[in-house]
């Protein structure tokens, strides 16, 4: 408790105030946002208990804790400036506090908007089916919170599944990674039904054997800051893109191709030619007759 009070009064060291209590704690809260508000393990919307606990979390993490962080940072910067005539310290503290508060309020606004609108119950935009004859799990629609868990549940009841057919415009990159890890663990093949864009490509590249039929397409672009239903902001877009570029390299995709996948703007799509995909090592066979 004494530590909490000392931060509030601005009496801690620079490392404690800025590195630990402000930057470190905001990173931890960002991770908790993704875990609590977006991860499929917590995809239990619609109950009063869920709504109550979500509101309590938002008020605590983005209200009480944020106020404690900002006040302590401001007071520390003010005392430092008074001792060393450091105008830039107070300006930096003010800018950091305002920017952090803006991100926090955006998260609160997006989440509360859903909680306070019961007239529009949540319906997932993705669809998963299993074709027992071909051993194919079909995934279509948006990659949004819940799709990884739904995919894992289908695999539990479908021991003979051999491949995943994808038809998606993309979505949440964390869900894309979740589906990708599941495909890797189950050693499944992947095929594109019609299109596989953005986050969907993470799932496609995870296949043991990857097939792109005639007329189907793969698409890539830069990630973007997104605050939609139970999505949290990607604060360091370049770092997240680098994680996935590393994953593509681990799947034996050429370095030249990997460097291009996030060059296209957020509202455009780069759809490589078949020759480019073959040369990059993404696909090996190009069938003429589809699945």
Topology:
Layout: H1 2-9, H2 14-38, H3 48-84, H4 87-115, E1 127-131, E2 136-140, H5 147-156, E3 163-168, H6 173-186, E4 189-197, H7 200-205, E5 210-211, E6 217-219, H8 237-250, H9 255-258, H10 274-280
Parallel strand pairs: 2-3, 3-4, 4-5, 4-6
Antiparallel strand pairs: 1-2
Can you characterise this structure?
With 291 residues, this protein is of the alpha/beta class. The chain folds into 2 domains: 2-115; 127-280, 2-enoyl-CoA Hydratase, Chain A, domain 1, CATH 3.90.226. Helix content is 53%, strand content 10%. It is built from 10 helices and 6 strands; from the N terminus they run H-H-H-H-E-E-H-E-H-E-H-E-E-H-H-H. It has helices at 2-9, 14-38, 48-84, 87-115, 147-156, 173-186, 200-205, 237-250, 255-258, 274-280, and strands at 127-131, 136-140, 163-168, 189-197, 210-211, 217-219. Helix 6 links the parallel strand 3 (163-168) and strand 4 (189-197).
């Amino acid at each position: 408790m004494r530590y909490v009070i000392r931060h509030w009064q601005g009496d801690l060291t620079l490392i404690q105030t800025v590195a630990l209590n402000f930057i470190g704690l905001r990173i931890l809260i960002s991770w908790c946002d993704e875990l609590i508000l977006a991860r499929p393990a917590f995809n239990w919307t619609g109950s009063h208990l869920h709504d109550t606990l979500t509101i309590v979390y938002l008020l605590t993490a983005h209200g009480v804790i944020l106020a404690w962080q900002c006040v302590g940072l401001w007071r520390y910067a003010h005392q430092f400036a008074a001792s060393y005539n450091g105008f830039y310290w107070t300006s930096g503290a003010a800018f950091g506090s305002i920017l952090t508060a803006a991100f926090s309020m955006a998260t609160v606004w997006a989440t509360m908007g859903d909680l306070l609108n019961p007239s529009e119950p949540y319906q997932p935009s993705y669809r998963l089916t299993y074709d027992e004859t071909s051993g194919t799990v079909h995934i279509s629609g948006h990659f949004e919170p819940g799709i990884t868990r739904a995919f894992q549940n289908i695999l539990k009841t479908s021991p003979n599944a051999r491949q995943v057919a994808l038809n998606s415009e993309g979505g949440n990159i964390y869900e894309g990674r979740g589906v990708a890890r599941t495909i890797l663990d189950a050693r499944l093949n992947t095929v594109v039904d019609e299109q596989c864009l953005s986050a969907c490509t993470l799932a496609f590249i995870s296949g043991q054997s990857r097939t792109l039929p005639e007329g189907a397409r793969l698409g890539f672009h830069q990630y973007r800051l997104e605050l939609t239903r139970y999505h949290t902001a990607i604060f360091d877009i370049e770092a997240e893109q680098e994680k996935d570029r590393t994953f593509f390299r681990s799947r034996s995709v050429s370095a030249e191709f990997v460097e291009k996948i996030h060059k296209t703007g957020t509202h455009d799509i780069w759809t490589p030619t078949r020759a480019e995909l073959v040369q990059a090592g993404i696909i090996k066979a190009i069938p003429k007759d589809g699945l």
